[in-house]
Design goal:
This protein has 265 residues and is an alpha/beta fold. The protein folds into two domains: 206 residues, NAD(P)-binding Rossmann-like Domain (Rossmann fold, 3-Layer(aba) Sandwich), CATH 3.40.50; 40 residues. It has eight helices and seven strands, in the order E-H-E-H-E-H-E-H-E-H-E-H-H-H-E. It has a seven-stranded parallel sheet, sandwiched between helices. Helix 1 packs across helix 8, helix 3 packs parallel to helix 4 and helix 4 runs parallel beside helix 5. The longest helix has 29 residues.
Length: 265
């Protein structure tokens, strides 16, 4: 399917692997030019060699507005503009009883999972408004609508992110910018790998057994009985940032294998 994004310029955060890199692969295959950012430029540069499209790799800490501004300035100097933003950078953060989490635990998740999106939007929206075309997609989470008690720092930040993007959608569509979130659940990424390694160690089981028990006990809605794949999420992101997604705005699209057990998103 032609996504209609040939020669569009896409900025992808958290691009070193996982959903970020999987999205980069799909957009590159459809002719988009890419601006990839993560904390390590060397890792990004190695990944970029696999993409077969014009790519700019920049190391940046998206919790700092000045560094995000620097990425956008470099991208504009190289490509002349940014048309598409896919914001996948994020962390799980500290876990435990909500009242036992320190202020610093909440602040860390807040800065990384929420404020970083504000920084990216501030830096990219002015030029997309000028051209009256843009796409802004952020990775939220099932936790935004189905919170788990021990993940309060993450829940709060992702719920704020989903609400923020919804807020943007009301005012930015008139400028041609469509804003949406994608909410995955239990995708096979470094983040869930670490979760399952820890679970396996605590229970004295294999990694595979940890995944199986987690699905059975913690995610009964995932009747497929497996983790999702990064490319399955990336396919939905690609649709949203394309010309094919031209009437999708303000949506929270769940790619969760049925994990959220309610009708509303």
């Amino acid at each position: 399917m032609d996504l209609g994004i040939k020669d569009k310029v896409a900025l992808i955060t958290g691009a070193d692997g996982g959903m970020g890199f999987a999205t980069a692969q799909i957009l590159a295959a459809d002719g988009a030019k890419l601006v990839l950012t993560d904390r390590s430029r060397s890792a990004l540069a190695e990944q970029a060699l696999l993409l077969g499209t014009e790519t700019l790799c920049i190391a940046a800490d998206v919790t700092k507005q000045s560094e995000v501004d620097g990425v956008v300035e470099a991208a504009t100097e190289r490509f002349g503009r940014i048309d598409i933003v896919v914001h996948t950078a994020g962390i799980t953060g500290a876990k435990g009883h909500p009242l036992e989490m320190k202020d610093s635990d909440y602040e860390e998740a807040w800065r990384t999972d929420f404020l970083s999106a504000v920084h990216v939007a501030r830096a990219t929206f002015p030029q997309m408004r000028e051209r009256r075309w843009g796409r802004f997609v952020c990775i939220a989470s099932e936790n935004a609508v189905q919170p788990y008690w021990e993940e309060a720092t993450y829940n709060v930040a992702k719920a704020a992110l989903a609400t923020f993007v919804k807020n943007l959608s009301y005012r930015e569509a008139e400028h041609g910018i469509l804003c949406n979130t994608v909410s995955p659940a239990f995708i096979a990424t470094d983040m869930t790998d670490e979760m399952m390694k820890k679970r396996a160690e605590e229970r004295g089981t294999s990694f595979e057994e940890a995944v199986e028990s987690f699905l059975e006990e913690e995610r009964p809605g995932i009747v497929l009985k497996r983790r999702g794949r990064a490319e399955e999420v990336a396919a939905v992101i690609a649709l949203l940032v394309s010309e094919r997604g031209s009437f999708v705005n303000g949506s929270n699209v769940r790619v969760d294998g049925g994990s959220v057990q309610s009708v509303q998103s």
